[in-house]
Design brief:
This protein has 310 residues and is of the alpha/beta class. The chain folds into two domains: 229 residues, Malonyl-Coenzyme A Acyl Carrier Protein, domain 2 (3-Layer(aba) Sandwich); 66 residues, Malonyl-CoA ACP transacylase, ACP-binding (Alpha-Beta Plaits, 2-Layer Sandwich), CATH 3.30.70.250. It is built from 14 helices and ten strands. The protein has a six-stranded mixed sheet, sandwiched between helices. Strands 4-5-3-6 form a four-stranded antiparallel sheet. Strand 7 and strand 8 form a beta hairpin. Helix 6 runs antiparallel to helix 7 and helix 7 packs antiparallel against helix 10. The longest helix is centred in the first third of the chain and has 21 residues. The radius of gyration is 18 Å and the shape is globular. The mean pLDDT is 96.
Length: 310
């Protein structure tokens, strides 16, 4: 029997206007956007639908914006009778969306966690001090080697193991630049990422420590739909494990392609990406080309994908 995983995007997938067609057409989606505003006490929908882009791209806004948009789309899918998944997972911030979908945290709390996570991350490293770069066409071991060789310039570490041919590095700007050059010399291609904080490296440990108290105060429940977490690339259902892994995820690499491989080993043959853009769909296809990958981003996607799944 076919097993389905629902996967949710993280930072970098945002754009002004995302989710607006769902907001206009479905009360279930509009309710999610309005609930998020109530939780945050500011007009998040204006930032999402009208921008400006610079405002949406601030980590403190980006994180709750992507989570809210993905959850608004999911609320419509649930109302339309989409099947329950065998697993859920999300990339970085998307893990909070996945946890909410699995019933481990309420929408109100998930939005507040996303906002606070973005706030602490933004405040920890001054803008311009850190950098993130995607390294393509090199195996992860070579990227790790490039980081080690550049460490005399400062902190630089693998941040996202996105696919067997894409690893993102993160850290202090001079060290990231040196590691990028080394990776190019090894035959890799490098792409600088437009981010305001160097996520998933040891520079984020103070942010994680500040956020840990908020995590401890947030009601997180045991879940029946397993959540495959970035920190371990394994499935978790117990609240205490989920909470600890969310804390560690902030300053540790995202094991995305390992998570995808784990789900396939567990029998998943269909991945449905829910949310803005299709970044994760491409990464899944690079990692396990033989599986079925679907994506819901626009209203017209809903019936098409539902037709394939049922």
């Amino acid at each position: 029997m076919s097993k389905i995983a629902y996967i949710f995007p993280g930072q970098g997938s945002q754009y002004v206007g995302m989710g607006y067609d769902f907001y206009k057409e479905f009360s279930e989606a509009a309710d999610v956007f309005h609930s998020a505003e109530t939780a945050l006490r500011y007009n998040l929908t204006d930032v999402i639908f009208k921008g400006p882009e610079e405002e949406l791209n601030k980590t403190i806004n980006t994180q709750p914006a992507i989570l809210t948009t993905s959850l608004a789309i999911y609320a419509v899918l649930k109302a339309k009778g989409f099947p329950e998944p065998s697993f859920v997972a999300g990339h970085s911030l998307g893990e909070y969306t996945a946890l909410c979908v699995a019933g481990g945290v309420e929408l109100f709390e998930a939005v507040r966690l996303a906002h606070l996570r973005g706030k602490y991350m933004q405040e920890t490293v001054p803008e311009g001090k850190g950098a993130m770069v995607a390294v393509l066409k090199l195996p992860p071991e070579k990227v790790e080697e490039a980081c080690k060789l550049a460490s005399d310039e400062g902190i630089v570490e693998p941040a996202n193991y996105n696919s067997p041919e894409q690893t993102v590095i993160s850290g202090e700007k001079p060290a990231v630049e040196k590691a990028s050059q080394i990776a190019k010399d090894m035959g890799g291609k490098v792409v600088s990422l437009k981010v305001s904080v160097p996520s998933h490296c040891s520079l984020m440990k103070p942010a994680a420590d500040a956020f840990r108290l908020k995590l401890a105060q947030t009601p997180i429940k045991n879940i029946s739909i397993p959540l495959v977490q970035n920190y371990t690339a394994l499935a978790h259902t117990m609240a205490h494990e989920i909470r600890e892994n969310l804390y560690r995820q902030i300053f540790s690499p995202v094991k995305w392609y390992q998570s995808v491989q784990y789900m396939v080993q567990e029998g998943v043959d269909t991945f449905v990406e829910i949310g803005p853009k299709n970044v994760l769909s491409k990464l899944v296809q690079q990692t396990v080309p033989h599986v079925r990958v679907l994506h819901v981003e626009k209203v017209e996607d809903v019936d098409k994908v539902l037709g394939v799944l049922t």
